[in-house]
Amino acid sequence: xxxxxxxxxxxxLISLAIVATACSCGGGPSAAPLAGCNAGTTQVLFWTxxxxxxTDSMKHMVDAFNKQSTTSCVKxxxxxxxxxxxxxxxxxxxxxxxxxxxxxDRFTVAERAAAGVLTDLSSFGAAxxxxxxxxxxxxxxxxxxxxxxxxxxxxxxxxxxNKDMLQAAGIDAxxxxxxxxxxxxxxxxxxxxxxxxxxxxxxxxxxxFVPALSQGWHYTWGFAYGGSFFDSNSCKVTPDDPKIVQAxxxxxxxxxxxxxxxxxxxxxxxxxxxxxxLPTEQDAFLTGHIGFVVTGPWVLSWxxxxxxxxxYGITYIPVPHEGDQPATWAGGWSVVIPKGAKNSKxxxxxxxxxxxxxxxxxxxxxxxxxxxxKTLLTDTSLFQGDLSLxxxxxxxxxxxxxxxxxxxxxxxxxxxxxxxxxHSKDPAVALKDVATATNDKLQQYCPLxx
Length: 450
Known about the structure:
Shape: globular
CATH superfamily of the largest domain: Periplasmic binding protein-like II
Strand content: 5-15%
Distance between the termini: 37 Å
CATH architecture of the largest domain: 3-Layer(aba) Sandwich
CATH topology of the largest domain: D-Maltodextrin-Binding Protein, domain 2
Oligomer: single chain
Radius of gyration: 22 Å
Number of domains: 2
């Protein structure tokens, strides 16, 4: 079991569903003006695996693009998929029925380009866009030095806590004020244990903190412990770094063991299932079944809609020892043109809008995600309230290594994480297995700089 998808985006479990339609399905010039589009435009088919509320904002972006474009008309379609699952896209590309534009998790771009699924954007002049984007995000859009994507949003991660739950348990939430620096893991453990509750049947109804929930990934805690996931000199992944192994032991193996492995799994299957995932309004933090959670700024857009009276605080991800440098990491999505696209020219026109200043401005305002378009990060009007805190975290954020096996590596790490939570394989052994399996696939692409 993989615990809660990264970010606020869940894989769509519906069958192919059109979420924004402004064009007919034909790819050629329209015979007559279509709703929301200008006369003579050609269709651009855009696929995303995102779900509401993110797709609500994307529809606004698509509508705005269609209104101003004299050449292209975008139809947005929700398809099944996730950060590392692009089975629907791969099947469509092989069958010649793929979209013109696809929204792809950025850290997997190199892997999909290496597999021949994506179009090199060099002929469209994409390399000229590099200076507009955050450096780490642009690097994630490259494979062998060539651009295969335009970066879209980004994020960072922090620890959210429920002030009312802490107060009810007699805990001073003021001790967690972010101005006081990062709390230690022991501090959070002590507080969290006071929140744990069981019902009459002996099952957990509240668990103070589950480090693996939401954004409590292998990367999250590996970075928090000062670990390194990749050695560029040897061109090898290093999940068996002793610091990462220790993070797995402390935050997954030992934490799960202290709560009770089976009891924790029962709690998670009840209050935080992943197949299918619960609707956003039933998120365990929003419903008060979790007191602490590591997550990102996108949840700030949830609170007014789903829990307007939630009294919450935000602080750094906890650190192993007092005085340790706090760590966070940034990810994000991108837009790409799959191989065999029928309207790649129109697709790139839309990509420049969607992942450019205009599109990212709308998305930032409406979803509380952060932009990768550098000039927008200096527009303080976009970052009101707590979102500004995450913007301040961004310059020092880590990022996942942009590898042509990035998706494989993520899935291998997730399997090892799950094994640690379930006590089915010792973390040191599991992470050694991750290194072996991933490096076996990585070596064919080394050196990566060529």
